[in-house]
Amino acid sequence: MKLDSTGYIIGFAAVVCLVASVFVSGSAVALKDKQDENKLLDQQKKVLTVSGLITDENQSGSNDDEVSDLTPEVVRGFFADGKVSPQLVPMPGFDGNCDALDVNTYDVRKAAKDPALSYEPGENEAKVSSVANCSLVYNVTTPEGERVIVPIRGPGLWSTLRGYLAVDKADGNTVKGLIFYEHAETPGLGGEVDNSRWRGLWAGRKVYDGDTVSLAVKKGQAGTAAEDPYSVDGLSGATLTSNGVTKAISFWLGPQGFGPFMQSVR
Ligand SMILES: Cc1cc2nc3c(=O)[nH]c(=O)nc-3n(C[C@H](O)[C@H](O)[C@H](O)COP(=O)(O)O)c2cc1C
Predict the structure, then answer these.
(1) How far apart are CA 178 and CA 149, in angstroms?
(2) Which of 159, 164, 105, 101 has its CA nearest to residue 133?
(3) Of 24, 70, 33, 46, whose CA–CA distance to 193 is shortest?
(4) How many Å lie between the centroid of ligand 1 and the Cα of residue 192?
(5) Ligand 1 atom nearest to CA at 158
(6) How many Cβ atoms from other residues are within 10 Å of residue 20's Cβ?
(7) Does residue 47 sit in the same domain as residue 159?
């Protein structure tokens, strides 16, 4: 066969594509466990950060205090020694209990996709189409007090925002922090949900006014936590992402989400 014939060129390209695709899919399969492990580790770091047990700098290992070497062992240590304890909560649309489940191996994300382990919550602004019967919160002991870390998810412009809201367990109402561990919003616009200055605005705000979730990201600037406890500054040029954060909090802290559980905390 001539090396410059059409058949040879197409055949050669097909073989290169085949070899490359086998290599890429092989690596994806081989590295899946490692990727899942790293994803879990990142989520655990976010729980520690939003609780105030480590700082943003600790996450990248650039601080030189006691947890500067934030190895997987150090992170897991917080969970193993009971400073962070996960708890399974039966959600409002489920009338069973979660006692038989192993909190350490339970995969809430998988459960939410399984019709046998989840339910449809009905119309809601956060566009949540499925809620796991049993969902996971974290109880955290910090030197400043007890926190409950509630998972939230809601619609951004391009993606579903997934994160955690830390609430003071002393009153079940005062926010201690907000963090997102997954989203695909535009860097510099919706991606500013990760900006530590903006995240710093959340501490001290209140979730509930009576029994109603009143905390919201407003368009424009909010006052201080003391004078404007139910509002947080909007992200400029990113009203859709800002609204998604509000919707996520309203749903997950409200009656269709962890509202009844939070009422028991209060
Ligand atoms: C390329 C591009 C990326 C954008 N990314 C976001 C985003 O991540 N989040 C968001 O809310 N709005 C984003 N917007 C802007 C929205 O389309 C919309 O204009 C904006 O949310 C309105 O916010 P504003 O009222 O604060 O201007 C983007 C717009 C463009 C053109």
Answers:
(1) 9
(2) 101
(3) 46
(4) 12
(5) 8
(6) 10
(7) no
Q: Are residues 74 and 187 located together in one domain of the fold?
A: no
Q: Could you tell me the distance, in angstroms and rounded to a whole number, from the CA of residue 186 to the centre of ligand 1? A: 8
Half-sphere exposure of 50 (CA within 13 A, CB side): 31
C-alpha 43/C-alpha 50 separation (Å) is 11
- Tell me the per-residue pLDDT of 199-234, one tens digit each, with 9 for 90 and over: 999 999 999 999 999 999 999 999 999 999 999 999
- Closest C-alpha to ligand 1, atom 3: 186
Q: Is residue 37 part of a domain?
A: yes
Is 1 among the domain residues? no
| Ligand 1: centre distance to CA 240 (Å) | 7
Residue 158: CB atoms within 10 A of its CB come to: 15
14, 22 in Cβ contact below 8 A?
no
Atom of ligand 1 nearest to the CA of 236: 26
| 242 CA to centre of ligand 1 in angstroms | 10
> What pLDDT digit, counting tens, does each position of 142-186 carry?
998 999 999 999 999 999 999 999 999 999 999 999 999 999 999
244: CA distance to ligand 1 center in Å? 12
Together in a domain, 105 and 11: no
The pocket around ligand 1, CB under 6 angstroms, is made up of 157, 185-186, 189-190, 236-241
Q: Which of these three, 30, 55, 81, is where a domain ends?
A: 81
Helices 72-80/6-51 angle, 10° precision: 40
